[in-house]
Amino acid sequence: MSSKTKIIVLHMKEVVYTAVFLLLAIILGIVLFFMFGPGQKKNSADSPQSRYKPGVYTSSIELNDNTFDLEVTVTSDRIQSIRLVNLSESTSAMFPLMEPALESLSSQIYSTQSLESIQYPDDQKYTSMVLLNAIETALKKAENT
After folding, report:
1. How many CA atoms lie within 13 A of 55 on its CB side?
2. From CA 77, how far away is CA 54, in angstroms rounded?
3. Taking each helix axis from N to C terminus, what angle separates 12-36 and 38-46, rounded to the nearest 10 degrees?
4. What is the pLDDT of residues 77-133, one digit of tens each?
5. DSSP codes, 67-90
């Protein structure tokens, strides 16, 4: 009368722990698949390239033997600041529309992040054109090609 029946005693605590760890391993595997899976490479390749090389770029302006610089600070995709540097008091007195025209232009450029369709008053037309040319020259230096 020998029977080959074996009785296995399992503690419920061990069964629950094993099931929980198995569930956590499956969840971890799914998370790793979505983080590092094949779809991730496509998303990073489709990301837009930066427009500019971050930095500070200058362009010189010469008016009646007076030379000063226009400085444009950019990040990888934004124009952060535009300002006049090395502007002497005598040049500022001879060309009083230079700073107000730059303030008007820079506020429009900051909001649109473009030099397209910039508007300026008729009394500041030539001053604004000189400043826009200098800004465009500095931004060409900053472009990421």
Report:
1. 11
2. 8
3. 30
4. 888 999 999 888 888 888 888 888 889 899 989 898 888 888 888 888 898 899 999
5. EEEEEEEE-SS-EEEEEEES--HH
Q: What is the pLDDT of residue 24?
A: 97
Strands (E), the chain: 55-63, 66-74, 79-85
Instruction: Please report where in the chains the tokens 């496509």 appear, as a residue.
Output: 42
Contact indicator for 37, 22 with CB cutoff of 8 Å: no
- Residue indicated by tokens 């033997």: 65
β-bridge mates for residue 58, sequence order: 71
Task: Give bridge partners of residue 29 from the DSSP assignment.
Answer: none
List, in order, residues 6 or more apart from 113 with CB less than 8 Å away: 78, 79
**Residue 118 · residue 109 · CB < 8 Å:** yes
- pTM (2 d.p.): 0.64
> Of the candidates 61, 60, 99, 66, which has an alpha carbon nearest to the alpha carbon of residue 83?
99
- The terminus-to-terminus CA distance of the chain in angstroms comes to 89
